Amino acid sequence: MKEIVLILTALALSPGLFAQKGNIIEQEIDPSKPTNLYTQINTNIEGSFSDQQNLYGLRVNVSYAMDPNNLFLIEAPFLYNDKTEKFGIGDSRFRYFSVVKRNLTEKLMAIAPFVDFTIPLGSYENGLGKSSWSIAVGSVFGIIATKKLALFPGISYVHTTKPTTDLIPDNAKFTGNGIGLQFNASYSFSKNTFLFINPTPTFLSTNSEWKTIWTGELNLNHVFVPNKLKANIFWGPNFTNKINVLRLGATFFL
């Protein structure tokens, strides 16, 4: 009798155990917070518009999360320049992002250092690249402001091997060093719709002269299929050099 009671008790509890396990597996991810790291493929149809030239193409980035706290990203654009009438790969990007601390206080949700490389794979002569390497090393801090609003300010040291064409004159030959800032804010309209607003000024010292480049990002996202598919509309203005980047993208979570 004792054995029968134990078996019946185990059978009664097993649906709850399986349901709990199922909830863990089916728990929805939250891409509204940049410090939440997921393996994903992101594709964007892109247009970059200025008085000098326009660029059109496809930008693809692949993010691989080794675990919840470490992520590698590789990004490659494939662009057409309407001025030179040339098509090819543009300057590419590699990033490593690590969350070293989580939930330090009720408001401070994360500290996440990163290193970001830009690799000059795009042809400078064809107007597809800037012919300069750059590196940014810094950290992002995740802060809960309200239930709907989270802040992700960040600071980084920036180094460029030679001047980029949209920052300083083409004939200048010197390196640049400075500070990059971000003031990213994530506002959730609903469970599946959220907006990133991110002013990103850079203060760059070139040839003992400081130059400020005022840029920003506005990125509206909507999750169509939880854990699987997200779409976004992006506007990236460069106010200093009068360049506007527009993107329409889709993200596939793996």
Task: State the distance separating the first and last CA atoms.
Answer: 49 Å
Largest sheet: 12 strands, antiparallel, barrel
Structural class label:
mainly beta
Tally of strands:
16
Shape label: globular
- Element order: H for helix, E for strand: HEEEEEEEEEEEEEEEE
**Neighbour order of strands in the largest sheet:** 1-2-3-5-7-8-9-10-11-14-15-16
Low-confidence stretches: 1-25, 167-173
Beta-strand residue percentage:
over 45%
Helical stretch tally: 1
Rg for CA atoms: 22 Å
Share of residues in helices: under 10%
What is the average per-residue confidence, as pLDDT, rounded to a whole number? Answer: 88
Describe this structure in words.
- This protein is 10% helix and 57% strand.
- It has 254 residues and is mainly beta.
- Strand 8 and strand 9 (149-160) form a beta hairpin.
- It is globular.
- The model is unreliable at 1-25 and 167-173 (pLDDT under 50).
Quick structural overview:
By secondary structure, this protein is mostly beta strands. The chain is built from one helix and 16 strands.
SSE topology sketch:
Blueprint: H1 2-26, E1 40-49, E2 54-67, E3 70-81, E4 86-89, E5 92-98, E6 101-102, E7 108-119, E8 134-144, E9 149-160, E10 176-188, E11 193-199, E12 202-206, E13 209-213, E14 216-225, E15 229-238, E16 243-253
Antiparallel strand pairs: 1-2, 1-16, 2-3, 3-4, 3-5, 5-7, 6-7, 7-8, 8-9, 9-10, 10-11, 10-12, 11-14, 12-13, 14-15, 15-16
Key terms for this structure?
twelve-stranded antiparallel beta barrel, 254 residues, mainly beta, disordered N terminus, globular
